[in-house]
Amino acid sequence: MLSIEDLRKELHAVLKISELSGSQDREGLKSFLVDDNLAYALAMAGEKVKKFPVHSLWESNYKGTNYNLLLDYLLETTDLQDFNIQVCKNGHSYSFFNRKSGEEFFKVVSKAPKDVVILFKQFLNDFNSWEEVRDYLNSKAKGSALSDDYLNYAVSYNCNDLDDEILSVLNDKIAEDDSIVDYDYLEDKHVFCKCPNVIIASEDFKKKKDIAKAKLGMAHYFYSEAYLVSEYLSKLLLKSGELVVQLDDCYVWLNTCEPSDLKESLKTVIKG
After folding, report:
1. pLDDT band at 26 (very low <50, low <70, confident <90, very high)
2. How many other β-carbons are positioned within 10 Å of the β-carbon of residue 59?
3. Nearest to 141 by CA among 22, 61, 228
4. Where are the chain's structural domains?
5. Could you tell me which of 86, 267, 75 has the C-alpha nearest to residue 185?
6. Which among 69, 6, 57, 66 has a CA at the least distance from the CA of 33?
7. Rounded to an integer, what is the distance from CA 213 to the centroid of its chain?
8. Other CB atoms within 10 A of residue 110 CB
9. Which helix or strand (DSSP H or E) is residue 40 part of?
10. For residue range 139-149, what is the model confidence (pLDDT) as tens digits?
11. Could you give the angle at the alpha carbon of 231 between the alpha carbons of 136 and 8, nearest 5°?
12. How far is CA 270 from CA 101, 236, 265, in A?
């Protein structure tokens, strides 16, 4: 897997969106010509990328000039990034931002992390899925632009210590009512591809698979297909007793269900 430093080299020409679209509303926003690896990474981070024969066009909502800072922000992924949530901690102050706009939607000053989770539970009370959270925050970000001040703060004080606790707030609610799980979204956004044979055949994979089997108390494990999945989905699968092998830069799910219907496999596994 390429590092962020490698991906920086795939950012080429910088264009002003207003010059491309003629829209005054988007004046000052930047578009970039990027190569395939960076285009893929940005698309996985929820950015708008259009494929063209030579380069891809990345349309950002950024008006600044510190492109390295922008890439640091977008490509240093967290468990909550898929749902447009940015958590920052500065001393005893926790701030929660809309990742798409940089707007702060609430702040907590407390020495006890549980107070933060309690407030987040109130915020999430009316949502039935993380996709609803993502879409709500995305709608609130329309017409906004990321600033260098916000990016500096978010990168400097990024906090993922509470990701699991925050995710569990809504995940527990979802687990109680299987009807609100969006399996189409899980299949589309969190199952990346079938795992390449070169990974399956590697000594590193075989060693870590044996360790993962031992943790689950399994002597044997027969699977129908292996997939590369997101960290978020890997945690749901592990919670359901599935075998997931964590490598240095990816998660491999060894699916025991019928491979012809991936969505049904996910439903069977997560529903239990």
Report:
1. low
2. 18
3. 61
4. 4-65, 81-178, 181-271
5. 267
6. 57
7. 26
8. 13
9. helix 36-44
10. 988 888 899 99
11. 85
12. 33, 7, 9
Q: CA 69, 63, 89, 2 torsion: positive or negative?
A: negative
Q: Which amino acid is at 50?
A: K
Q: 114 is written with which tokens?
A: 């549980």
- Please give the helix or strand (H or E) that residue 31 lies within, else none: strand 30-34
Confidence of residue 170 (pLDDT cuts 50, 70, 90): confident
H/E run at residue 260: none
CA-wise closest residue to 18 among 54, 80, 61: 61
DSSP 88: E
Average of pLDDT values for 41-56? 87
- Return the amino acid letter for 206: K
Tokens of 201: 């055949």
Token pair recorded at residue 202: 């590697």
Contact 132, 124 (CB under 8 A): no
pLDDT in tens, 186-206: 888 788 898 888 898 899 989
Cα–Cα distance measured from residue 182 to residue 263, given in angstroms and rounded to the nearest whole number: 10
Element (H, E) at 108: strand 104-109
